[in-house]
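Run log, item B.
One chain of 385 residues. Sequence copied directly from the ordering sheet:
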Amino acid sequence: MFDSVPPNLPTTDAPHPPQAPFPSVPQSPSVPAPMSVSPIITQTANPLPVGGASSASLQEEHVTVMPSKFFVAPKARLPWKKIGLALLFTAVIASGIVGVTFIVKSRIRTQQGTVTPVAVVTTPPPTVIPPVDTTPPAVVPVKPDSTITPTTPPANPPVTPPVTPPVTPPTPPATPPSDPNADRNDRTLTSAPDRDSDGLGDEEEIVIGTNAALADTDADSFNDGKEVSNLFSPNNPDPAKKLWETNVVNKYHHPTLGYEVLYPSAWVARSTTSDGQEIVFAAAAGANIIVTATANPERLTPAQWYAKLYPTGGTSSSITTKSGLTGVASPTGLISLFQITSSGTDWIIRFQYLATNSTVATYKTLYQMMVTSFQVPSIKSFWAF
């Protein structure tokens, strides 16, 4: 098909002319630099070798360049690394601020919890007292009404007599209790046998321990009866020896009224009432000495009490104990009364000789010894154990 070589083709391998450089594409100042584009190289091969030349020599390179109007500016990349660091830094700063704020608020609340609240005292507003109107009310004259007929008061108005309250008569003085044995004890008793006439009966000599045949058993120039009546010992030659310093008598002390009395140690003292207001000293030969305490609200004297108790018993006589208490005694001396005060209450103390199965005053001297020894230590004491 191709018999000859075209005149424009060299017949021998000639060196390739130098390639002209690619034209530079002007860049717009607003368009970024174009990306480097590799030239597109196309190869054109002759189908048949010319003049026996090799196929390699027949190859020709053609470079085609894309026009600049088709160039696309590359997209700008965001600095993600820097943005991430900035966000991390911001988060750290924000966390620190939040933590500091929380700590400060916690401390403020703690301090506020320990503060003692101050009581707020509200002062009430002062009471306003309105001024008092001292102006006297106006007197409105009243016109007389001719239709009203004046009422004429009665000449003698009724007078209601005053009511006189009933008068309570004064309570008469309390009458002392009667003594059914008054006549028996104070009139019909006779004196006991006394062989030595020393003032002690024969039975009393046995109780005291003296010699019934000797008027002065201890030979101290004082009769036995006189010594016993005055609270001296009849069995000791010492005339100053006291009766309570021997073993022939005992002391009785009343637990509530506080009075005291001596009585023979051979006798028995006992209370016959629950309140202890009657004490009986039982003798051995059918006789008792009774001491009774009776309240005296009217504060009668012993003489007044005796007169009411024994209106027919004769006139009483005054007696005095060794401690200085004064009282009265019946004509026979077998009833004696004294007035004392204990715990603010006035009392009458009565001594009474009571014969149980005899008309003889067997222990009259011992009875008088007991009356003489009667004392109230809170007032004055004469003897003491």
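Observations after the first pass:
- The longest strand covers residues 345-355.
- The radius of gyration is 77 Å.
Flagged for discussion on Thursday.
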